[in-house]
Amino acid sequence: MKCPFCNQENTRVIDSRPVPDNNSIRRRRQCDECGKRFTTYEKIETIPLTVIKKDQSREQYDRMKIQDGIMRACYKRPISVKTIENLMDEIETEIFNKEEKEVPSTLIGEIVMDKLKELDAVAYVRFASVYREFKDIDTFMDELKKMMK
Ligand SMILES: [Zn+2]
């Protein structure tokens, strides 16, 4: 992306975060040439993120899928939906900060585990015990579904 001050191409992202309720990502960028900082807003629809699954197949990143898994791990725990949504925002910020077009599902799983660990021990153990065995967010979701029945 070009710097709006000096028109050079050498800019880098120093921070990315989702804008709540606006389906966009706010990015702080810094120009390596002149050192000035500026902000861009990018629509989520224009940032296609692909998830690489364990078998190397690809699928579109789906926030709801991950959020569903977290909600299942938090089943009957004293954790509000709002808290889970905030956690999801933090997780997405980390994912989008990677600046990659494709991310492995294992990486997403690791980020989710890190965040859950801080939030709730029981939810973390539920998530981690199943997740570590399967190392794949999709298989994990299926297994977790069975566990909760
Ligand atoms: Zn510049």
TrEMBL record:
The record's free-text note on cofactor binding: Binds 1 zinc ion.
Coiled-coil residues: none
UniProt entry tagged with the keyword Cell division: no
Cofactor(s) for this UniProt protein: Zn(2+)
Keyword set includes Protease: no
UniProt entry keywords in alphabetical sequence: ATP-binding, DNA-binding, Metal-binding, Nucleotide-binding, Repressor, Transcription, Transcription regulation, Zinc, Zinc-finger
Domain ATP-cone: 49-139
Residues in unnamed zinc fingers: 3-34
Pfam families named in the record: ATP-cone, Zn_ribbon_NrdR
Entry similarity comment: Belongs to the NrdR family.
PANTHER family: TRANSCRIPTIONAL REPRESSOR NRDR (PTHR30455:SF2)
HAMAP family assigned: NrdR
Biological role stated in the UniProt entry: Negatively regulates transcription of bacterial ribonucleotide reductase nrd genes and operons by binding to NrdR-boxes.
Protein name (Swiss-Prot/TrEMBL): Transcriptional repressor NrdR
Organismal lineage: Bacteria, Bacillati, Bacillota, Clostridia, Lachnospirales
Gene: nrdR
